[in-house]
Amino acid sequence: MGKVVMYSSVSVDGFIADENDQPGPLFDWLVSGDVPLDDSGALKVSQTSYDYVRPYWDEIGVTVVGRHVFDLTDGWDGQPPSGIDHVVVVTHRPAPEGWDPEAPFHFVGDVESALASAQELAGERTVEVAAGDVGGQVLAAGLIDEVRMDVVPVVFGSGKRFFGSVDAPHLLEDPDVVISGNRVLHLRYRVRR
Length: 193
Fold this sequence. Notes:
Dihydrofolate Reductase, subunit A, eight-stranded mixed beta sheet, alpha/beta, 20% helix, single chain, two-stranded antiparallel ribbon, 12 strands
C-alpha cells in the first residue's frame, strides 16, 4: 500500500484559505515561474519547485477531499485534477443531481471508509489527503504518514486552518525536505508514530 500524504499550500500563519474560502496569493507560486508544471501550460513554476513537485504529483493515485472542496471546484467538471486517477469525496450527501456515474469520483460517508477506498484504488501509489477539516480528521485518526506544505509568504490572520479543527497534539519528525522556491517554501514532515 502506498503512503498517505496530507498536502496543501498554506500561509505562514497556517491557513489554506481566508474567511471567504479564497486562497488569495497562496497559489501565485504556481504561475510565477517559467517551467510548465503540467501539460496545460497554465501552471508554471521555478525549476526548483518543478524538481520537487512534479515527481510528487506523479506518485499520486487518489486524492481525498471533503464535500466543501468538491463543491467549491464544481467537482473539477468530473475530471480529477493534475492527472490523478480518482477522487474520493468525504460527504454525507449523495453525488450531485445529474453527476456522471462514470466519472472517477467516489462519494463516501466517513474518513476511515474514504481512506480505505482510496488506498484500494491507489494500490502502491500515494493517497493525497487535502488539508483542512478532512485532512485534520484523517490525521486525528492516525492515518497520515507524511505532511507536505507549500508555505507561502503571506499572513492571513484568520481563515480555514491547514489542520482543520484538530484538538490534540500530533508530533511530526524534523522536516526531511526544506526547499526554497520562487515565493514558496516546500516542507515535508513524516508523522511520528
